[in-house]
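User: My instructor asked us to take a sequence, write out its structure as C-alpha cells, and then describe one feature of it. I'm not sure where to start. Here is the sequence I was given:
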Amino acid sequence: MAMKNYIIRWLINAVGLLIVSKTMESIEIDSILTAVVAAAVIGIINTFLRPILIILTLPINILSLGLFTLVINGLIFYFVGNIVEGFQVTGYLAAFLGALILSVINILATFLIGMGKGKAFIHIQRGRE
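Assistant: Let's start with the prediction itself. The C-alpha cells for your sequence are:
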C-alpha cells in the first residue's frame, strides 16, 4: 500500500512539472520521460536532503515564521533543473515560483484523489448538540 502511494505521488509530481513547464516560459521540460526523472530526483532530494536543510536553517526558519522553507523548496527546484538533462530552469525566481506552483498542484491533487483523507492539518471536532 505504501509503495502505491509513493508511485501515485511520483506521478502527481511528474504531471505537476509538466503543468509548471506549460504555464511558465522560464521552465522547460523536453519530454514526459524527463518530467518523470525530474519528479523522481525531486522526491529523493525532498526525502533525504530537505530535512537536513530545514534543520540547518532552523533559526532563519523560526525568524521568518516558516517562510524560509519556500526558499529551500526553490533552491531544490533550481538544483534539480541544473542536474537533470532536459529540465531547464532559467533563474532562481523561476525556480521559486515553479516550486510554489508545484506545491499547490500537489496539495490539490492529493486532496482531490483522497490520499490526504484523515490527515488534515486542522482537525475540528464538533461538540454534542
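For the description part of your assignment, you could build on this observation: The chain has one domain: 2-113. Try explaining in your own words what that tells you about the chain.
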